[in-house]
Amino acid sequence: MPLFGNTFSPKKTPPRKSASLSNLHNLDRSTREVELGLDYGTPTMNLAGQSLKFENGQWIAEMGISGGVDRREAQRLRRRNQQLEEENNLLRLKVDILLDMLSETTAESHLMEKELEELKSVSRRRK
């Protein structure tokens, strides 16, 4: 038992083997594409019986699937949604205008009440 020495000395680890035993990384790009099949095509998925494909940055329902919403119906729903959003914005604007009118009228009412109180106090003093 050493007094000033290190009692813990782990064994040296053996050198690691090559990370990949495959020689595919040595192939050129075109051969790799053929070997690995890097041309996937358009991504598709199936959600609740509805088949969708990804085209031009959007998920589009494939035609001929029962239970799905066709493009005309989706377009009609989008138009209706747009109309409702515009109506909602208009109603919010009207509410804001009405609140402004209410606050202005309330302020005027308070000013008139103050003036009335002042006039009453002045008329009481004169009597």
UniProtKB/TrEMBL annotation:
Protein's name according to its UniProt entry: Protein chibby homolog 1 isoform X2
Stretches with biased composition (Polar residues): 1-10
What gene makes this protein? LOC111157594
- In Gene Ontology terms, what is a biological process of this protein? negative regulation of Wnt signaling pathway
User: CDD domains given for it?
Assistant: Cby_like (cd07429)
Where in this chain does the entry annotate a coiled-coil region?
74-122
* Biological source species: Enhydra lutris kenyoni
Q: Which UniProt keywords apply?
A: Coiled coil
Short name of one Pfam family for this protein?
Chibby
